[in-house]
Amino acid sequence: MRSFEGQFSDNRPLKRTREEKVRLLAELKETYRTLKPHTSPELKTSIAGKIRELQAELAAPPPPPRERRGPPQQEQFGTGPRPPRRPRPPREI
């Protein structure tokens, strides 16, 4: 089955809220603590890297609310009213 542009299965990062990130961080820490001694070192370093990544994201200040953000980059597009459409000619059957 082929995907279309913008489908969730595309290779894009997931956008998570701050609460979801906090919950995921707690789950990853618990998973890391409960790993067995015979777990592969690659898996341990992968989980530890994800934990460090999430901690760095949570340490950064949250973005300002939308109303206090700056103007969008593309100001020239869509700023005015659209011109009226031409009327369609009547269809002949």
Compact description:
This protein is 38% helix and 0% strand.
Give a structural overview.
The protein is an all-alpha fold and 93 residues long. The protein contains 2 helices and no strands. Helix 1 packs antiparallel against helix 2. The longest helix has 19 residues.
What is the secondary structure topology, with strand pairs?
Blueprint: H1 18-33, H2 41-59
Helix pairs in contact: 1-2
- Tally the helices: what do you get? 2
Radius of gyration: 24 Å
Low-pLDDT ranges? none
Largest sheet: none
Helix content: 25-40%
Distance between the termini: 40 Å
As a percent range, the share of strand residues is under 5%
* N-to-C series of helices and strands: HH
Number of strands: 0
**What structural category arises from helix and sheet content?**
mainly alpha
The dominant shape is elongated
Rounded mean pLDDT score: 81
Features of the shown structure:
elongated; 0% strand
